[in-house]
Every structure is written in structure tokens, then in C-alpha cells.
Amino acid sequence: MAEKIKIAVLMGGKSPEYDVSLISGGEVINNLNKKKYTVTPIIINKNGGMSWINKVRHQDVVFIAMHGPYGEDGTIQGFLETAGVKYTGSDVLASAVGMDKIMFRKVMTAEGIPIPKYTVVDGKYSVSGILKLIKGPWFIKPSAQGSSVGASIARNIIELEKSIGLASKYGNAVLIDEYITGREFTCSILGNKKPVALPVVEIRPRKSNFFDYSSKYTDSGAEEIVPAKIPHVLAGKLQNLALRIYKIVGCKGFSRVDFIVRKDGSPVVLEINTIPGLTPKSLFPKAASAAGYTYSQLLDKLINLSLRND
């Protein structure tokens, strides 16, 4: 009988997405095939700490189920690289670029990929200066958070200042986008050097004007249609664009690219998520299911991808 692969599932950490991470990690643990794997859950507390590092040194693979700062931004990946431990998902550079929304936007601009008109506030700012660049309404979010933490829509100057204040609680740099109306889609990617696009998902929030934290993680928060009921040409365009972005950033394992499609049918790229949520309500497992993967098979695939470079 083949020896079991030793897997540590890493979750928690110093992030506003701590609770979501625990749900993702718990779902991973529950669905790992115990005939194939010896599973060690590791929870990093909200204060961080390094006691966990010794626990992962003798593992074959660390399954990273952390979201947001310290888990998705290259920090934890750097520790694991230093310890010589294999892990799921993208490496340090791709994780850092994907998490830093401002740097991601700069890369997309350099590659000629359509993104929203935006500006950045870092510390003091001038409302009149923002108005000269973007008339409004605006979509405001922290530059380095996930799960729509600290994100909001502002339709007037009072709301704009309030939204900047909210986003500033999660970091000094705040991203201010033009608010784009249209249909929201996401496309998940799976693979290393030969990635494939999974079926496109359309997101229709029910409790908010956008896919915010509540819409993502509460019952009936959003309607998620997978595969999206859109023309094959549009689906193909979104999948090809997601694949292109995945390769540009240098992602590995898996990621998810979010879009708004304007009324004229043109897609606008919002962001990439290098560690998509893995909760029962998350979009990546739903897209994988539509592609024929059970949750357990999806985890097998991610682990296999972490063990090889092809």
C-alpha cells in the first residue's frame, strides 16, 4: 500500500478574513481523502506568531487556506519557501502582485488589459482632485484586502469621504474606481504551465448593489449562475482573458479573475484572487463542480499541482 501524503492545512492568521479562512480550512480538511492523506490542521492565531513553522517542516505539502494579508500576499509563501516546504497555489511574486490591487492595475495597464478608471489615495487627499479625475459615482476599497472587506459605493461627496475613511482602516492606500454598471462575472483557472479555464460564473447580488462580504458569505446573499447563461463568444472572451491574466501574473495551482461586463458587451477586469475562497458558498468550488470535479477531486488536483512544475 502506498504511503500516505502528509498534508498540513494552514488557516487563520492576522487578517480580517480570519473567520472565512477557518471555514475554508475546515471544508478542505473534511473533504481530503483520508485514505490518501495524513492531515494536520494548523491554525495561526490572530496575533500571528511563528510556532507553526516547526509543524510544517516534516509535511509533504502545506495546503494554504488563508485569505487576505499575510496569507495571500506572498508572506506565508515566503516563509514556506525558506523552510523548503511545498505548498498549494502561487509563489511569492505572483501572490504579492495579485494581492496588491494597485500593482496589479499597473501590470494590467502595461499589458493593455481593460481596467476601471482609477486613482489612489494614500494619506491626505483632495476631494476636488478626485473629482477632476473621476466624476463619480465611485467604488472605493483598500488596496490590499480580499472578500470585499472595507469596500463600498459612494454616490456623493459625503459618501465618498465616509468610504475613504472606511477603507483607510484596512491600510493607508485606498483605491478609488469609477463605478461601472453592468453584469458581474468571474472565471476560475486551474493548472500550472498549461492552465485551463473553468466555466464562467455570473454573480447577481441580492443583499447589496455589489458582491460584498455579506453577499459572499450569507445564505441567499447572491444568485450565482454556473455556467453563466451568456453567448459562447462572450464566455470564451472572458475565459481567454482570465487565462492571459493568469499567465501574466505568473500564477500556479489556481486563481479566480473577476470582471464587470459593460452594457455594450466589453469586459473590464477588476482583480485576481490567487487563493479563492473554498467555503461551501465559494465560487471556485462551484465552477469546478460544473467542470466535473467533486470537491475531493479538486483538492487532489491542487495537491498534485503543488508537487510538480508542469
The number of distinct helices, counting runs of at least 4 residues, comes to: 11
Residue share in helix: 25-40%
Instruction: Report the major sheet.
Output: 6 strands, antiparallel
N→C terminal distance: 27 Å
User: How many domains in all?
Assistant: 3
CATH topology category name of the largest domain = D-amino Acid Aminotransferase, Chain A, domain 1
Structural class: alpha+beta
Query: Superfamily at the CATH H level of the largest domain?
Result: ATP-grasp fold, B domain
Strand percentage: 15-25%
Provide a brief overview of the structure:
This protein has 310 residues and is α+β, with helices and mostly antiparallel strands. It has helices at residues 18-31, 53-56, 75-83, 92-99, 101-110, 127-133, 157-168, 213-217, 232-249, 283-290, 295-306, and strands spanning 5-12, 37-44, 61-64, 118-122, 138-142, 152-154, 173-178, 183-190, 196-197, 201-205, 222-225, 254-261, 267-273.
